[in-house]
TrEMBL record, chains A, B:
Keyword annotations of the record: DNA-binding, Transcription, Transcription regulation
A Pfam family: GntR
GO molecular function, one term: DNA binding
Protein name: DNA-binding GntR family transcriptional regulator
SUPFAM superfamilies per the UniProt record, alphabetical: GntR ligand-binding domain-like (SSF48008), Winged helix' DNA-binding domain (SSF46785)
Domain HTH gntR-type residue range list: 5-72
Source organism per UniProt: Actinomycetospora cinnamomea
Organism superkingdom: Bacteria
Signal peptide positions (record): none
Species classification: Bacteria, Bacillati, Actinomycetota, Actinomycetes, Pseudonocardiales
DNA sequence: CGGGAACCGGATGCATACAAGATGCATCGA
DNA sequence: TCGATGCATCTTGTATGCATCCGGTTCCCG
């Protein structure tokens, strides 16, 4: 999609960023006019951005009423995590049985990401750590070379971001745990060990589930 | 999404239908103005419909140029079938290990669908057969109760429709084959037989792959 | 004091107007 | 003859205007 600097894209990126970083909390009601005024453009491009955000599940449009920033619900958390397990699990399984050359190429890429992530942890560089985390999972899904799955996964990652916002994902030992689980996943990347790789993925996602569980704000109805 | 009779929805449904039934073949270049005139509305709602269709992978928008009806490529066929296998396979596996009551409820629903599909075959009622086919697969995916996976699957089914258009999916024995494969899938729905159910699904999708293979028109570049 | 209808403000849905980018062709020059 | 340039035309991108619809409030009447 045009990442050019069209008004539509600005509206899309700005609003999405505000939703993902929490400055537009779930339950908030926003209007096309507000965003249009804030970005000094007309309602038309904002409208298109809203439609796209609704398709991504971040907004819910109410006819003649406004746009509701959807609150993260436990059901959504579960749906996102299940979908992630399905997509990433498939990618891991496929990768285990892929030709050696390809599997090792991806494994090398993953090791590189882990190296960066370890360094970020050592430097206490949270953004770099998060970015490496993102690269790790995306690299796995990219290995399927399936644009449909990849696009779905991109949307899942966005939702995950928002989910993590309200969670205690920042426990002191959590980064180490994440890193260890990533390493366990990569270590299981070998022919015949697909089930194990998927099990390690499940461990990883379960940890996210735990980190997120019970930390939701009641979400303005 | 509002299935009300708004202009936007009419533009969306009409254009989508025309793409899916082949009256707008892949490679065709259409414009907002054409559709707007044809439906006696302004460009605004058409534009929104186009954006949505692009998100679904049916159109590709070229800035200031027009909208290209994307031609089905072998790569897309493969991507759709792989994604279907991932989603439906997950649903089947989950269903096999689900509580007995739930599994049997879904199995009953599937048997009902198969009954309808058999009747449609006997009556030589192609639309009814296709609709039953659709219900069969959707019922499986619905059993996950995961709206994300369900929505993805809906989009996959649409793409599959278009893929089937240019295929020899109408071989004389093909309906019997489909029905038999559906039955094999349902028969494998039992605890501990998840792998078998997935294998039967793979058989089914492989048959589609074969039916579609080598029947593509060269697709205007 | 309570209930219902009219009213008002605000937001969207769509139509229309205008500006700007892109393409293809005709034209012009070497 | 061939290539570059400018133009005509088509299409999108964005702005703006207006009608409609919704919800909350007010006002009137019983």
């Amino acid at each position: 999609m045009g990442n050019g600097t069209s008004a539509k894209d600005r509206a899309y990126r700005d609003t999405k960023a505000r939703i993902l970083d929490g400055s537009l909390p779930g339950g908030e009601l926003i209007t096309e006019g507000q965003v249009a005024d804030a970005l000094a453009m007309s309602r038309t491009p904002v409208r298109e951005a809203f439609l796209r955000l609704e398709a991504e599940g971040l907004l819910r449009l109410f006819p003649k009423r406004g746009a509701l920033v959807v609150a993260v619900s436990p059901a959504e958390v579960e749906a996102v995590l299940e979908a992630r397990e399905v997509v990433e699990g498939h990618a891991l399984g496929k990768l285990c049985e892929a030709p050696t050359a390809e599997r090792e190429a991806v494994a090398r890429a993953l090791h590189e990401v882990l190296y960066v992530q370890r360094a970020a942890l050592a430097d206490d560089d949270e953004p770099a750590f998060a970015e490496a985390d993102r690269r790790f999972h995306i690299t796995i899904v990219e290995s399927t070379r399936n644009p449909i799955l990849l696009e779905l996964y991109a949307s899942l990652r966005d939702r995950q971001l928002r989910i993590n916002l309200g969670s205690l994902d920042r426990g002191p030992r959590r980064p180490q745990e994440i890193l260890a689980q990533h390493e366990a996943i990569v270590d299981a990347l070998a022919p015949g060990r697909a089930d194990e790789a998927r099990a390690r993925l499940r461990d990883h996602l379960d940890a996210t589930r735990v980190a997120v569980a019970g930390t939701r704000s009641p979400a303005a109805s």
